[in-house]
Amino acid sequence: MSSSFQPVKPQKGSDIVLAQLKQRIESGEYEPGYRLPSVVDLAVGFNVGRSTIREALSALKAMGWLDIRHGGGTFVSQVLPSEPVPDAGDFFHKKESFQEILEIRKYIESGCASLAAKRRTDVDIEHLEQILVRMRVVLEDERASEEADVQFHLQIAKATHNTLFIQMMDSLTKRLQESMGDSRRLWFFSELASGQQLLEEHTGIFEAIREQNEALASERMMQHLVKVEMVLERMTVR
């Protein structure tokens, strides 16, 4: 008799919650626009912790099944995914590419922040301020917020006045947009942070650059990205 078996992994609680909620949407029980119960009520209903519910909701949001409005509730997306989507296990374990882009971002962008603090001009500061103003205006608009987020990080690279830094960040633009969307979801749903708190982090980085404090600018940028990395590790450990 062959002794080779496929190892059986215990199913994560968030995977089970995700699968059940997704089944209710697919069956039509939860129709587009339907408002889901609160995180607290779902946690009680599934008899799991709130963090487990948030992980499942975060994944369903990323997969296109839910629309999570910060402070406004969780709704079934008006337009449901038409393409095949990864199953729950794939979503929570597919972290390698995201982790790689985070690693690149940590070391490139902390260096960018430091050099930007050293070399920034008044025009650079004006451009960064304009982006921060836009981030405040579109705080409740997820897509516009993500776009402003990307522009903020690209503008810091431009403030270095180093052609290679700028080219590297430009070449990463598409990956940056993807990773920032994931980063924001992890930030909001695992850390229970708000758009306002995220804005404050960006403002702190800006202030260090404006004051030409190279060490602080680099430190704040690194801390900004390390937090997301730590959340990712917690979410994907079984």
- Morphology: elongated
In whole angstroms, the N-to-C terminal distance is 31 Å
Q: Label the CATH architecture of the largest domain.
A: Up-down Bundle
* Total number of distinct structural domains: 2
Mean pLDDT, all residues: 81
Element pattern in H and E: HHHEEHHHHHHHH
The overall strand count is 2
Rg measurement, Å: 20 Å
Looking at CATH, the homologous superfamily of the largest domain is GntR ligand-binding domain-like
Give the helix tally: 11
**Mind telling me the CATH class of the largest domain?**
Mainly Alpha
The main β sheet shows up as: 2 strands, antiparallel
Q: How much strand content do the residues show?
A: under 5%
Helix % is 55-70%
Uncertain spans, ≥5 residues at pLDDT below 50? 84-94
Give me the CATH fold name of the largest domain: Four Helix Bundle (Hemerythrin (Met), subunit A)
Q: How does the helix and strand content classify structurally?
A: mainly alpha
Q: How are the strands of the biggest sheet laid out side by side?
A: 1-2
GO molecular function: DNA binding; DNA-binding transcription factor activity
Keywords: DNA-binding, Transcription, Transcription regulation
Pfam family, one: GntR
Protein name: FadR family transcriptional regulator
In short:
Helices cover 70% and strands 3% of the residues. It has 238 residues and is mainly α.
Give structural attributes.
238 residues; mainly alpha; Arc Repressor Mutant, subunit A; Four Helix Bundle (Hemerythrin (Met), subunit A); 2 domains; two-stranded antiparallel sheet; 11 helices; 70% helix; DNA binding; WH-like_DNA-bd_sf; GntR_C; DNA-binding
